[in-house]
Amino acid sequence: MSKAIVLHAHGGVDNLHWEERDPGRPGAGEALIRHEAVGVNFIDIYHRTGLYPLPALPAVLGMEGAGIVLAVGEGVTEVQPGQRVAYAGRPIGAYAEERCIPARRLVPLPDAIPTRMAAAMMLRGMTARYLLHGCYPVRQGTTLLVHAAAGGVGSMLVPWACHLGATVIGTAGSPEKREKALAAGCHHVIDYRTGGVAARIRELTDGRGVDVVYDSVGQATFMDSLDCLRPMGTMVSFGQSSGAVPPFDPGVLAARGSLFLTRPSLMHYTERREDLLAHAADLFDVVARGVVSVHIDQSWPLAQVAEAHTALESRRTTGTMVLDV
After folding, report:
1. Helix spans in 63-207 (H)
2. CATH number for the 3-122+294-324 domain, one of 3.90.180.10, 3.90.550.10, 3.40.50.150, 3.40.50.720?
3. Fewest CB atoms less than 10 Å from the CB: which of 67, 108, 263, 312?
4. Mean pLDDT, range 298-310, rounded to an integer
5. Dmax over Cα atoms in the chain, in whole Å?
6. How many CA atoms lie less than 13 Å away from 72 in the CB half-sphere?
């Protein structure tokens, strides 16, 4: 019998239980896969705590994984048994040894991408792709700010943005994380704990401000991020590791220079299969060419996912992390 991490009630990591769970047989349009590794992301914590609602409980968390197709259901043409595949996004259920999933959400892996690496990079890497090409057209001459530049998304977004010709300013808290952000390609790194991020941005940009801010931190950085933007700049709020952004008057955007604000989701940017494949292809390309390096900085056995959640919530992690199955 296959096993999975099952959440029976919202709350702390003690609500995550390692249990036997039959994945069933694939129905029409589905594939049964055996995971080699599973990604861990902050959205998993939001699901565990109930900040982001789940369809029902008990539930298996996890939105990213990679492995081998064991069987396919009727009408499946996207993948075939024995093929290496990866995925990121809905439906949740990755914290399992085996699972059934809609085949249209699976991406075949090229030879250049190891399976375990794919499990660590799909959600973060495709997020970086839509941030750079979907939310704002980053190109030669763009100046941007990345909060948590040494984090999972930041460590992939920074070198990719540099490759596109952007000037990249990052924020990070500890000396270790600032060094990692610089190693990833940041032209400047600001210690956000000292405050004065907006003032430092003005110094670095000769008073102009940046073209776009990528903010996954949320409540603690949101208003300062707006102050970092040039007139008609773009604020991309794509996470809330410090808490949700409270309601605010949209007039704030006008007062700060007719700013644009978006709160994007990978699920929307990759809902159509052709968009999913395009995001994955671009990601595989920059990784295979060495533009973006994927290092698995931390790993745990799937059964010890509670330890991974605790490390991620306490901000003791850098870069990417996986659960080995």
Report:
1. 115-130, 154-163, 175-184, 197-204
2. 3.90.180.10
3. 263
4. 94
5. 62
6. 18
